[in-house]
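ok new one. same drill as before - structure tokens go in, u give me an amino acid for every spot. 233 of them this time. try not to just spam alanines like last time pls lmao
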């Protein structure tokens, strides 16, 4: 399966994964390219993936230590994961543009956190629905779904910066920090020059408006609290 959607590596997400993690779980692992890149500089890690598409999962077997073909929201998939782990807890969780595809991402994040060691880090890349390109569409009365991007027709949930952070804190994670991924930099800079003067009239600080409208995606890091008690895992 040589699909460019799966072959592209999110370098910002890769850099956010703790460099010395020994047991990593990636949900939405695709063909395992991100895991392959991570293992190139941390060869001692055990990198496990969950991937819903069979062809991608089959290719990922060449790049990861273990791959489970299934839906992370499905109990059978989680049981398969538990059988493989045999009680061992992960110290890192990677979620690259996958949270928005779940019907109930709150449930999924709780289930995944239960399989993380105390102090484990979650790194997630989440599309920003407050991006200026979406606002521009709305001002023209449009919400046009596409094959990929912010309005990917397979997206079921949509998040701003604030609601993405709440997603993690509401599911027991401790928010650490977030970094914006700013794509289409030239048009973004141009439209910010036009929009920022409106911030005062809207009662929004220029810094907040620039932050919220410029980010195409957010790379969010959260921790499983060190005092977490994991039962039966």
């Amino acid at each position: 399966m040589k699909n460019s959607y799966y072959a592209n590596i999110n370098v910002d997400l890769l850099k956010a994964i703790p460099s010395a993690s020994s047991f990593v779980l990636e949900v939405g692992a695709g063909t395992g390219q991100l895991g392959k890149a991570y293992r190139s500089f941390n060869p001692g890690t055990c990198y496990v993936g969950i991937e819903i598409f069979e062809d991608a999962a089959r290719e990922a077997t060449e790049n990861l230590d273990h791959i489970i073909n299934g839906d992370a929201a499905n109990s059978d998939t989680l049981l398969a994961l538990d059988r493989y782990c045999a009680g061992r807890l992960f110290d890192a969780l990677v979620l690259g543009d996958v949270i928005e595809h779940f019907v109930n991402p709150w449930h999924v994040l709780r289930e995944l956190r239960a399989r993380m060691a105390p102090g484990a880090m979650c790194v997630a890349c989440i599309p920003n629905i407050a991006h200026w390109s979406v606002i521009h569409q709305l001002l023209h009365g449009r919400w046009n779904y596409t094959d990929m991007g912010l309005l990917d027709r397979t997206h079921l949930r949509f998040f701003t910066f604030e609601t993405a952070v709440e997603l993690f804190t509401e599911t027991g994670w401790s928010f650490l920090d977030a970094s914006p991924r700013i794509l289409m930099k030239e048009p973004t800079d141009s439209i910010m020059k036009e929009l920022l003067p409106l911030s005062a009239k809207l009662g929004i600080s220029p810094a907040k408006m620039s932050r919220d409208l410029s980010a195409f995606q957010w790379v969010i890091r959260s921790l499983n609290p060190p005092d977490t008690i994991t039962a039966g895992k």
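The mean pLDDT is 94. and btw Residues 4-223 form a domain with the Rossmann fold fold (CATH 3.40.50.150).
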